[in-house]
Request: fold
Amino acid sequence: MARFLASLLLLFSFGVHAGPLDPDFETLERALTLKPSQKIQFDVAVGATRRALLGVGLSGLQIKDRVAAELAKPRPDLNVIYEIHEQVVEQNKPLFREAKDEWSRLYPLLDDEQVAIARRYVESKLSLLLR
Reply:
């Protein structure tokens, strides 16, 4: 279960960049044919994931100018760029932890068929990433 959830969050973290890796929650939801109690938790997990992705997107916009300014220097300090990256990761870690926790609450509510559907969804999206 932990590996599945980690894969799911990895996949969704790439959704910030859109394209073929964009997490299509509506398609996943339809494929899962969720029961009402599952749908409630699914919506909570999706909301937490969207907040995490929004946080990363906003952080990216905030640091864009800082990184560009550093790279514009005759001798950019790569440690500064690394520190900026670390700040973004740390700043958004709580949001991704919340998303992980919400998906962890949904996972036990799914039956075996739904788990297989979710797994195929994640694997198909990750295969695009690994090309």
